[in-house]
Design a protein that fits this description.
There is one protein chain. The chain has 4 helices and no strands. By secondary structure, it is mainly alpha-helical. The protein has one domain (10-98). The longest helix has 38 residues, at 11-48. The N and C termini lie far apart (50 Å).
Length: 100
């Protein structure tokens, strides 16, 4: 066991690093997807003059974020949060911005 610490990473360290790498990759892909949906809403608004509802995929992902914050005991202002989501600005501010 002493040799592992001297000569290489433990299996747990390698697994944790791999999980972190995949998490970052998934986060970047999610941001691209959310940006695409926002741009699609922008196009529809420009064409029709009325902004469409947030799509179900965006709602699902962002509801998960909202649930985590609420499980941490934060009181989130729903209107402020979903307005930011609609324009893909939900990650522009720290969580404290959305608290009541």
């Amino acid at each position: 066991m002493l040799y592992m610490g001297l000569f290489g990473k433990s299996k747990e360290q390698k697994i944790n690093e791999l999980k972190q790498k995949h998490s970052m990759k998934n986060g970047k892909e999610l941001k691209k997807l959310l940006k695409f949906f926002k741009e699609d809403r922008d196009k529809i608004e420009k064409r029709t003059g009325k902004r469409p509802e947030i799509d179900d995929t965006t709602k699902m992902f962002m509801q998960k974020v909202l649930n985590v914050w609420m499980s941490e005991g934060r009181e989130i202002d729903d209107e402020k949060f979903w307005n930011a989501v609609d324009y893909n600005k939900q990650f522009d501010y720290p969580v404290e911005y959305y608290e009541r």
